Fold this sequence. Notes:
The chain is α/β, with parallel strands linked by helices. Helix content is 27%, strand content 23%.
Amino acid sequence: MTDAPAVKHKLDAHIVLDRSGSMDSVRQAAIDAVNSYVVELAKDGSLESRVSLTLFDKEGTEPSIDLVRDRMPVSDFKALTEDDFVPRGWTPLRDAIGRTIKTMDLQNLKPEIRRALIIMTDGHENASKEFTSEALKVLIQEKEKAGWLITYLGANHDSWDQAKDYGLRAAATMDFDTSAIGETMAMAATNTRAYGATGQSLSADYTATQRASAMGDIKADAKKYQTSRITKIAGIAPTYPIITKDDWVPVPGTDDWVQVGDALLPIAKSSSAPDAWAVE
């Protein structure tokens, strides 16, 4: 009697890639990064993966948000080329994310298919007309509650603040240096594979080592690239509430990192509350 064949998990990954003018300096690197993402995703034979790709910019009065690859099996993916990716114009980031989620909704995929959305941009939102930050936040949080993996990769801007405005988890947000765009997308693929295998978005959280590598700083102390950064309090309220020792679990071997829920966070002494610490 032969063993039953292993069940393959099904994964639909959708990349939303910034095509604004500032991406011209890393045009070829961005093209290679997308293609390497697909190659990396295909390495997992336990996944039946498909990849979509949306490019976005705004040149003229209306945003250009173009679905250029639509649910292609990784084995048959048509590689991105310079003809496909011509940077120009502005950055309608909110509209690109919101419309892509709506497009993914219209596909009416079976519930067992795992959904991943990978957002990559090198700048701030500056050209959306349809989606506000609040509307996008509601939409993203709805999808995360439904089990989607939504990852935000940002360069040359405060990606933490922008992602937080959109309701994205800090652990699924990562800064990258444009010199490391290829490595960043390869790591995103590795984490997408982990999500595809488990169905748990927490399995795709970025590690400290990955964060350091994405910044081209692989020799640095990786701890400083953990999920969040230290808030320096100088009479200014922190972004997140001040917490007390009742709210965390100490991390062995360190006195400035704590476990809060499922996140590993840095702490800084608060000048406004002597017996508490601030976390950001």
